[in-house]
Amino acid sequence: MLDGACMTKRALVTIGDRLRAKRLALRKSQYEVAVEAGLRPEVISRLETGKSNASLASLHKLAPVLGFSIDELVKDQTAVTKPKGKK
Q1: Checking phi first, is residue 49 left (phi over 0); if not, alpha (psi -120 to 50) or beta?
Q2: Reduced to 3 states, what is the DSSP secondary structure of residue 11?
Q3: pLDDT at position 11, please?
Q4: Which end of the chain has fewer CB atoms at under 10 Å, N or C?
């Protein structure tokens, strides 16, 4: 069984993977997305690699740039982060 820290890391990577896939589908660089969203390029990199947690403020800025809703991005995350047998 996975511990909470490992599950949280998996959730971050899943969100990061989704951000990266959306960015690449639009054929935009991390720099372009960062400028359009008003964020630093390092933030985009750290989010995509799962090295940083995404704040709601960051996701709110990224959503229109990458064409997603926040609920679309984080869907199914409870299945990844919720330990088995816990409610």
Answers
A1: alpha
A2: helix
A3: 64
A4: C
All domains in the chain, ordered by first residue: 4-75 (1.10.260.40)
48 alpha carbon, distance to own chain's centre: 6
Give one DSSP letter per residue of 17-82, joined into a string: HHHHHHHHHTT--HHHHHHHHT--HHHHHHHHTTSSPPPHHHHHHHHHHHT--HHHHHTTHHHHHS
Q: What is the pLDDT of residues 51-77, one digit of tens each?
A: 888 899 999 999 999 999 988 877 765
Question: Each residue of 7-65: pLDDT tens digit?
Answer: 455 666 688 899 999 999 999 999 999 999 999 999 999 999 988 888 999 999 999 99
Integer Cα distance of 43 and 52 in angstroms: 8
- Its sign, for the CA torsion 35, 38, 40, 42, is negative
Q: Tokens at residue 5, please?
A: 């820290």
